Structure formats: structure tokens, C-alpha cells
Q: What sequence folds into this?
């Protein structure tokens, strides 16, 4: 609220009922302001008591008529308004004055010279009878009333300062006082052979280490400190319509934001978008690798929950985390974490991890919260400076350790603008409605399957709203032309069918800039500035190609969008099989690529693939010459979209065939072997391009092989099974080459690009 509310509405005393006012003033100046408000509103309470004196309050409540009204008042101090915002600045810290809690000797001066910074907030009133009904009869009634008054004042203050400053109070104490926590301690003590006291002490220490002690001052300071890491680099385009839908849901349930993860800037950008639209600050769950000084201490006071990277054997820690998340959900505090477990190294979504989701699902299933709404979020960048480092990691380089020098280097790289970032919110998913009946105490297989389906559905919804950027389209075009450079006209001729397809399908994209020569030239120039594209200008006209050594970087941008083209690519491959085998081939391709892409359920997959096949030829089920259908098509994408993934699978398959069936497959050693042999295969022309030489792609291909029982030594018929797998992949590669040749022939006829 912007100032004191009228006394009648604030205290509800219009009917002559007694009024008790709890004074939350902490200084003489604040007490004077509360007294001034009482006089101005002509409010004559039966008692004005200190908010932090439950003994005096107990005396007043003892024997008070049931219709006695209880309310509370205190002063909220606001920072000075600058550039339309009231935030604590680092200059305030240097002056050693907290604008939100100024020292007593400053308060009189502020109240006199800047009265807009001293605002009185009044708690929503309640009668003694209503409070007794909510009390429940355990503990001190006076302490309960005092606690309710503080919460009501916090709500009133949030109406003044904004919901982004909604922060939990006394979290550890509240968790430890809960019956669920005490029961969990008793169970664990028996299980671990400890006393309840020892178990409780360990749990308290774990809670003290993980609970984020949110502070509005820390939130302001961290925001201003970290904003340069993204504010200069990108223009932010956010889905405001999606936010308004979420606002209504948040009035009833906690929201769990589950964004895609491509950059260290992801949580900073999302926090700014939510704060700008006055959402409560999320509790962001992250690994303790970022808990370094000076960011760590400040981040923890700004809602960052640092969690151990591994705690699978620590039952006490798991219980503490479970209780903490259950408490936050019950109190409707929003959560945020990144299900992929780390930034994507390839540009597409990584397989989700289920650990944190299981804890949240368990809290809902056990009734700690009625529901939690999962919010898939797509964060998509035109360009990222950190992609080069991630691409180097795919080539075997060591990941740099996070710390102060790393942060300084990262910040220096973010000082110039490199494009736009798109933040889009997918349709929320009710967690309660998606879980298996019986919850975690029912059928364990059904419970585990329901969690997997929820995680995959989140990924599918993220992909659905991820826009195809102009950068993604241009890199998709250039990567599809092996060892060739294209003129501007040739690039546009490749791009136009892609753009037309997106528009026909009503798929999200930001490719309007590619409608003109100037727009395409601008995108190519931006990629050239970041050394992703090379431009040769010494001939008749400029020609463009992927810079040597930058194919993995280009593939990162391409891969952010290729999920929108996967169905089309699979349809092209399916058409090159026999008519009677086409649905079997479609399902086989789905299984073959299930570690690379998130496919919907089989029924929906068949529906979507059927629609794509019918776009190619309405009579696709009976047509015998699939090649002829593809030769008539305006757009062919299979080689551009799938070749790097299939090539990586082929490398893994060939190395498994060459390995003795009795020899163990050690992951690190085997992936190193794939990288070396894959480079040779590329040099000998057996692979399409360097973008297939990705450690993450090899790792996914190895998971596929393990899923097919091709990695465990000594299995009967293992050598033959490996040969069948490799033969299958060679056949898929042959079909991709055929599609690439058809596409190249069509482009040669149109724009003179040699196959």
C-alpha cells in the first residue's frame, strides 16, 4: 500500500468492537510515526502493545471478547527512487547505511526531508475468535497471534514494495517444529543406529547449510552486481502473455520453473524478467560449485539454494532437503532449477535428471502441498560467447573451474551486445495430476515411470515454445553444405524453404530478418564477428562458410532449433523404405534417436509423423518410389538435421565391432578412442562434417549401445549383434547421403551449388 489505510477499514472498529494494535516500531521515530497515524485516523484502541511482547499480549487477550479486533502497524523504509526504481545500490553499502533499515539517528532526517521513503503499513485485521479458530490449540496463543501479525505486516509491505521481495522467515525453526520433520528424525535414528538428538543435530546442520536466508537488500545488491553479465550482451524479449497466465496460478499453488540451460546467464535473465513483472523471487536450486567468495554468501541471501553435487548415500541430508522443499511448496514459495544438470554442450536439450523432481513430487503426493505447477521455460540466445569454451570441452579440453578469476573473465566478455535472448513460458503442468496413484509408497515402477513421463513432458513443452532463431537457420544452411562456401543469394535460396516451412507449420521463429538481403547479410556479419563464419571477399562477390574449427560452435546454434525439423527429417527417411515396412522403420528410427531427441508418446508420435508424410505425399503409404517423392519436394532436411548424430552413432558402432566381445568398455577410454578414430574417418570422407566429433554425441551413442545390450562383455552373440547394429547405421547413412544428393541436385539446378 502507498500509505496508511483508513482506520475503520484497517481496524474494523466501525461497529464499536474493542481494538488491539500491535506496534512493530523499532525506534522512537517509528513509534512517533505509528502514534501520529493513530491520531490522524482518530483510532482509539483499547490497547497498543509492542509486537515483540507476547507476555503483554497474552494479558490483553485473556478474557478479551471474541469480537475484539487485532491489527498491527509498522514503518517500512524505502530506498531513494532512482531511474524509476527503488533498489538498494552499492553506493548505499559504501555509505554504511541500509536504506531499508536506516539507523535511528537517520530516521528523523529521512522522515522530514524525504517523507515518501517512510511508509506506514497496516496488517489485515482479524478478530480474536477467528484467530483462535486458526490457532489449533498447540503452543502459546499470544505467540501465535504475534507471528500472524508479522506475516500480515509482511503481506501489506509486499503490496508496497512488490512481490519480488516476498521472503520466508524463520525457515529452519519452522521446519524443525513440524510433525513431519520430527517423525522423519525418529525413523532415521532407528534406521541409522543413532540417537534422535544426534540425528536432529546433523539435520539441523544440513538445513543451516542449504536454507537460503533471503534479504531484500541482498537481492538488490546481487541483481545490480550481476546484471552487467547479461544487460549489455542481449536485448531481452519475454513472453508477457505467458507470465499473466502464471500469475493467476501462483495465487493458488507454488510454481516450479524448469528452464532450458545453455548459459550461466540463464538464472540472471529469468530473475530479471520475473522481477520486472513483480513475481516473487524464486528459490533457485544449484550446485555448490558456484558457492565461491564473494558471490556465494550474497547469492545465498538472495534465494540461491546451494546443494551438494552428490549426496546419494547421506540419508540425513536427503531428509533435510525433502523437508525444506516441502516447506517451500506448502508456503507457496516458487522454485527453480535446471533439470539437465548442467549447461547444454550441443545446443539441444540434455536428458533430464529426476532427483529434485522426485523430492518435489513426493511432497505433493504426501499432501505437503495440494499441487505444484511445473513451468517449462525456453531461454534461447541468438549468440553466446561461452559456446566456444563448451565446444572445446567437446573436443576433450578440460572445463575451467568456477571462481573469482573465472567470473571476472566471463564479465569482460559480456560488455558488448551480441543479439537477442528469447524467454518463453510453455503451458504449465499440474504435478498432482501427472503422478502415479499411490505415490512413492505404491508401485515403485509406476512411480518411477510417472516421474520420467513428467520430465519428458516438460522437455517436450520447452521444445514446443523454443523459437527458431535466425542464427539457427543460417548455421543449419551452412553446415549442410560440406566443404563449400555460398554466395548471399545461395544462402537465401537455402533459407527460403526453411522459413516457408516454419510459417506453414505456425512454428515459433524469429526469422523475419531473413526476408531481405540486408537481413541475411546482417546475421552472417554477426556470426563472422564472433569467428563462427568466414567471409571471402576477394572474388566476384562475397562467399560465406563455417570458419575452420568452428563447426561445433555452429552446430550449437543449429541444434537449438532442429527439434522443429526432426519429424520432417524422419519422414524423408521413412519414404526411402519399402511401403510395407514404413511404420516399422518409423518406430525403429524413434528408438534409435531416443537419446538425442524428446519424442512424444507413441500414439502422438505416429499422428505427427503421419501429418508430415502427408505433406510430402498424401499417398505415402502406398507409393513405391519414395525417391521420386523427395525429388519433387521443395524442402529436404534429413541430412542437415540428422547426419551429425547418425555419424557419431556410426563411429561408436564401428569401434564396438572392432573390439573383442570379451573386452570391457570403459567409458573414458572408449570415448577417447572414438574421438581419435572419428577424426580419421572424417579426414577420409566417411563422415559428413566435424560437428559429429562431439564427446557428448559419442556419449549419447554409447548409451544407445548399452540400451541395446551391446556393451557388456561376454554376452552370447555379442559380436553378431554389434555387426547388425553397425550395418543398420550404415544403411541409414546411405539413405541420408541419397537425400543429400537429391537436395544438392535440386540446388544445383536452382542456384548452382555443386553436390
A:
Amino acid at each position: 500500500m502507498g500509505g496508511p489505510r483508513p482506520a475503520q477499514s484497517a481496524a474494523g472498529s466501525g461497529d464499536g468492537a474493542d481494538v488491539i494494535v500491535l506496534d512493530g516500531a523499532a525506534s522512537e521515530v517509528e513509534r512517533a510515526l505509528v502514534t501520529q497515524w493513530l491520531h490522524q485516523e482518530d483510532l482509539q484502541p483499547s490497547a497498543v502493545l509492542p509486537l515483540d511482547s507476547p507476555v503483554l499480549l497474552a494479558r490483553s487477550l485473556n478474557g478479551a471478547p471474541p469480537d475484539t479486533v487485532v491489527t498491527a502497524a509498522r514503518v517500512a523504509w524505502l530506498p531513494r527512487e532512482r531511474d524509476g526504481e527503488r533498489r538498494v545500490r552499492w553506493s548505499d553499502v559504501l555509505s554504511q547505511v541500509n536504506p531499508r533499515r536506516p539507523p535511528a539517528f537517520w530516521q528523523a532526517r529521512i522522515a522530514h526531508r524525504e517523507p515518501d521513503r517512510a511508509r506506514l503499513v497496516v496488517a489485515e485485521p482479524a478478530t480474536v475468535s477467528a484467530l483462535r479458530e486458526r490457532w489449533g490449540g498447540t503452543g502459546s496463543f499470544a505467540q501465535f497471534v504475534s507471528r500472524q501479525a508479522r506475516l500480515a505486516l509482511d503481506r501489506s509491505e509486499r503490496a508496497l514494495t512488490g512481490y519480488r521481495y516476498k521472503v520466508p522467515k524463520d525457515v529452519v525453526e519452522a521446519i524443525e517444529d513440524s510433525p513431519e520433520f520430527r517423525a522423519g528424525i525418529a525413523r532415521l535414528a532407528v534406521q541409522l543406529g543413532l540417537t534422535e538428538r544426534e540425528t536432529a543435530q546433523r539435520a539441523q546442520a544440513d538445513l543451516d547449510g542449504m536454507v537460503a536466508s533471503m534479504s531484500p537488500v541482498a537481492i538488490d545488491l546481487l541483481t545490480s552486481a550481476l546484471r552487467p553479465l547479461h544487460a549489455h550482451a542481449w536485448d531481452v524479449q519475454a513472453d508477457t502473455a505467458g507470465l499473466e497466465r502464471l500469475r493467476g496460478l501462483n495465487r493458488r499453488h507454488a510454481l516450479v520453473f524448469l528452464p532450458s540451460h545453455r548459459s550461466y546467464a540463464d538464472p540472471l535473465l529469468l530473475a530479471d524478467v520475473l522481477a520486472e513483472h513483480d513475481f516473487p523471487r524464486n528459490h533457485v536450486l544449484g550446485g555448490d560449485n558456484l558457492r565461491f567468495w564473494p558471490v556465494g554468501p550474497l547469492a545465498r541471501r538472495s534465494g540461491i539454494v546451494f546443494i551438494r553435487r552428490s549426496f546419494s548415500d547421506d540419508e540425513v541430508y536427503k531428509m533435510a532437503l525433502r523437508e525444506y522443499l516441502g516447506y517451500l511448496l506448502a508456503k507457496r514459495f516458487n522454485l527453480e532449477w535446471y533439470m539437465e544438470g548442467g549447461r547444454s554442450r550441443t545446443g539441444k536439450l540434455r536428458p533430464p535428471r529426476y532427483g529434485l523432481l522426485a523430492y518435489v513430487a513426493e511432497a505433493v503426493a504426501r499432501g505437503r502441498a495440494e499441487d505444484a505447477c511445473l513451468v517449462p521455460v525456453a531461454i534461447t540466445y541468438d549468440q553466446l560467447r561461452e559456446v566456444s569454451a563448451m565446444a572445446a570441452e567437446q573436443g576433450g579440453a578440460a572445463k575451467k573451474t568456477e571462481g573469482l578469476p573465472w567470473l571476472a573473465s566471463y564479465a569482460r566478455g559480456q560488455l558488448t551486445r551480441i543479439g537477442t535472448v528469447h524467454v518463453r513460458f510453455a503451458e504449465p503442468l499440474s504435478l498432482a495430476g501427472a503422478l502415479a496413484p499411490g505415490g512413492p509408497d505404491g508401485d515403485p515402477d509406476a512411480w518411477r515411470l510417472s516421474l520420467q513421463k513428467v520430465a519428458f513432458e516438460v522437455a517436450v513443452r520447452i521444445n514446443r515454445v523454443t523459437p527458431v532463431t535466425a542464427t539457427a537457420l543460417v548455421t543449419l544452411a551452412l553446415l549442410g553444405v560440406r566443404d563449400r562456401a555460398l554466395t548471399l543469394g545461395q544462402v537465401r535460396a537455402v533459407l527460403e524453404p526453411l522459413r516457408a516451412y516454419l510459417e506453414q507449420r505456425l512454428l515459433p521463429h524469429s526469422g523475419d530478418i531473413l526476408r531481405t538481403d540486408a537481413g541475411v547479410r546482417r546475421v552472417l556479419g554477426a556470426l563472422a564477428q564472433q569467428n563462427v563464419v568466414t567471409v571471402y571477399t576477394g572474388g566476384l562477390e562475397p562467399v560465406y562458410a563455417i570458419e575452420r574449427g568452428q563447426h561445433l560452435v555452429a552446430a550449437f546454434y543449429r541444434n537449438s532449433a532442429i527439434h522443429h525439423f526432426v519429424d520432417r527429417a524422419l519422414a524423408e527417411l521413412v519414404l526411402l523404405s519399402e511401403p510395407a515396412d514404413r511404420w516399422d522403420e518409423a518406430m525403429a528410427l524413434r528408438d534409435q534417436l531416443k537419446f538425442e531427441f524428446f519424442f512424444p508418446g507413441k500414439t502422438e508420435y505416429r499422428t505427427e509423423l503421419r501429418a508430415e508424410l502427408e505433406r510430402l505425399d498424401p499417398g505415402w503409404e502406398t507409393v513405391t518410389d519414395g525417391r521420386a517423392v523427395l525429388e519433387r519436394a521443395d524442402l529436404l532436411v534429413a541430412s542437415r538435421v540428422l547426419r551429425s548424430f547418425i555419424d557419431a552413432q556410426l563411429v561408436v558402432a564401428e569401434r564396438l565391432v572392432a573390439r573383442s566381445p570379451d573386452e570391457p568398455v570403459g567409458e573414458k577410454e572408449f570415448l577417447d578412442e572414438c574421438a581419435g578414430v572419428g577424426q580419421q574417418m572424417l579426414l577420409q570422407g566417411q563422415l559428413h562434417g566435424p560437428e559429429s566429433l562431439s564427446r557428448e554425441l559419442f556419449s549419447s551413442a554409447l548409451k544407445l549401445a548399452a540400451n541395446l545390450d551391446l556393451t557388456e562383455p561376454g554376452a552370447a552373440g555379442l559380436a553378431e549383434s554389434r555387426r547388425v547394429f553397425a550395418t543398420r547405421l550404415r544403411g541409414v547413412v546411405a539413405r541420408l547421403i541419397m537425400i543429400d544428393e537429391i537436395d544438392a541436385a535440386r540446388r544445383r539446378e536452382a542456384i548452382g551449388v555443386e553436390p
